[in-house]
Amino acid sequence: MKYRTFTILHKDKKSKARVGLLKTKSGNIKTPFFMPVATKTSVKHISSENLESMNAQAIICNAFILSLRPGVEVIKKIGGISKFMSYRGIIFTDSGGFQMYSPSLYAGTKKDGIIFKNSYTGEKKFITPEMNMEIQFAFDSDVAMCLDSMPLLHESKESIEAAVKKTTLWAHRCKECHDSIQSHLPKEKKQLLFGIIQGGIHKDLREKSAKEITALDFDGFSIGGLALGEPKESEYSMIEIAKHYIPENKPCYLMGAGNPLELIEAIDRGVDIFDSRFPTKNARHGTIFTSSGFLRISNASFRKDFSPIDSECKCFVCKRYTRSYISYLLKDGEGVGFQLASYHNLYFLQQLMQRAQTAIAEGNFKNLRKEIFNSYKSKVKG
Questions:
Q1: Which of 124, 213, 309, 327 lies in the 20 to 30 Å Cα band around 24?
Q2: DSSP for 305-367?
Q3: What are the residues facing 274 on neighbouring strands?
Q4: What's the rounded Cα separation, in Å, for the pair 219 and 60?
C-alpha cells in the first residue's frame, strides 16, 4: 500500500474547508492547525510545558537564526530541536527567507542565494539552497521549508517577478539536495519538504509561481508573502489563485496568518496550516482574543473589572485571573502578564482550530464562520 503523507478525512459541502491528517516522522496531526512561532526554540514567554498543556501539537522555528546561535553543532549533538527544547510535538523549520524583511539580518540576494548579516557578530553570511537544506536536516525538524526569495510588500512588480524566478530556481535546488540527503531513509522516517509560492498581490505573478512550484512533487505547499498588511480582499484572492494549482491531496500552509477571522476565511478557501507571531505580539501589547472579539485589556476601563478575560474560555488564565490583574501587569511591563496574555491568545487559537475541525466534520462550518465574522468584523473593544 502506498504511503500517504496527507489524507483528507472530511470535506465541507458548502466551502473548500476540509479536515486532513498530516503524517510526519514524529507523529500525526489533524488539520487545520495553528503553530505558535518559536523562532529561537521558544515562544516568547511560553514554555514547552505551556505549549503541551494548551494542546499545541506543532510549532515552527527559524533555521537560519538558530544556525547563528546556538549553532548547528549544538542542536545536532543533542539530537535535534525537539530534544534541545524538550518539546514533544511536531516541529516545522522555516528557511529564513522571511528575514529578508529584517534590515538587521538581510544584506541582499544573488542568483545562488541570500546574503544575511549575523546579528550577533555583524559578519555577512551567504546561504545557498543546499546549505539551507543541510541546516534544516541537521536540526531534525519534521517539516522543512524551501529557501525562498521573500519580496517586500512595497517592492515594484519587476522586483517581485525577480523574486518569483529565484524562488523557483531555489525550489528545484532545494528538492534535489533534500532528496539526496535522505535518499537512504524509508518514507515514514523522512523529513518532509514544502515548496513556497510567492508573487505578492499580482495575480499573474502569483499564478506563475503557483504553476512552477506545484510542478515539483513537494510534500506540501506554502503560500508566502501574504498577511503582511495588504488588503484582505487581495490576500484572499491570492490564496484562491494558489489553491487552484495546489493538488487536492497536498497540505496547504498559509504562512504568517494569525487573526482569528483571517484563519477562518483561509480555512473556508481550503488552507490547512497556519503560523504567526500575531497572537503573542498582540497579547504583549494588550490586545486579547475573546469569544466576542478583540479586547484591549490595557485600557483604563478594565482597571476595576474583576471578571475573567473571557467567561466562555476554559484556559487556566480565564479560570484563575481577572481582567483587572492582567491589565495591571501588562501596564507595568511584568513578565507574568506577558505570559498570561500570550497563553490565553494561543489557547484561543488552538480551540478555534479544534472547533473548525469539528464543525467541518459535522457539516456546521458555515455557522462557525458566521460566528467568528460577527465577533471579529468590528474594531477592538474596550
A1: 213
A2: --S-S-TT--SHHHHH--HHHHHHHHHTT-HHHHHHHHHHHHHHHHHHHHHHHHHHHHT-HHH
A3: 34, 254
A4: 17
Angle between helices 232-245 and 203-214 (to 10 degrees): 30
Tell me the residue type at 46. I
- Residues 216 and 90: their CA atoms lie apart, in Å, by 24
- Catalytic: 275? yes
Q: What is the DSSP letter of 46?
A: B
pTM: 0.96
- Inter-residue contact 38 to 27 (CB < 8 Å): no
Determine which of 13-17, 141-145, 151-155, 159-163 has the lowest per-residue pLDDT on average. Answer: 151-155
Q: Which three cell numbers stand for residue 382?
A: 474596550
Q: What is the pLDDT of residues 66-99, one digit of tens each?
A: 999 999 999 999 999 999 999 999 999 999 866 6
pLDDT band at 53 (very low <50, low <70, confident <90, very high): very high
Catalytic residue among 140, 272, 275, 310: 275
Specify whether the backbone of 239 is left (phi greater than 0), alpha (psi in -120 to 50) or beta: alpha
Number of H helices, E strands in the chain: 14, 16
Residues of the chain above pLDDT 70, percent: 97
94, 148, 219, 310: which one is catalytic? 94
- Catalytic, 204? Answer no
- 148 Cβ contact list (under 8 Å, min separation 6): 95, 97, 166, 167, 170, 171, 196, 198, 224
Give the integer Cα–Cα distance in Å for 313 and 310. 5
